[in-house]
Amino acid sequence: MENKASNLPLIGGVVASIGAGLCCAGPLVLLLLGISGSWVGNLTLFEPYRPFFILAVVSLFGWAGWKLYRPQTECQPGEACAVPQVQKRRKVMFWLAALVALILVTSNYWVLWIV
To answer: Where do the TM regions start and end (predicted)?
Structure first.
């Protein structure tokens, strides 16, 4: 159970970053995939909620980073956070998810260069 609970802030951060990038990167990705229609323009309706999504991304990734990089003295022997291989895998997943989140959150700046 502790393993699944430790992934929630990371998963929540990625979902919130998708919400933050939905207004800007969403239409571009859909058009690049060949999906079009008048409803694609409605994705810009999420633009006013973008600051809330960004706040959620920062807070959830902060929580996930705190849980990942907290002192090992809080881990009981035999728990997942005490196993070095698990810690390394979680750190790699954390930084990959943080990179994806950064790309999506900053999408309104770099999408203009692609279009």
So the answer is: 12-40, 52-69, 92-112
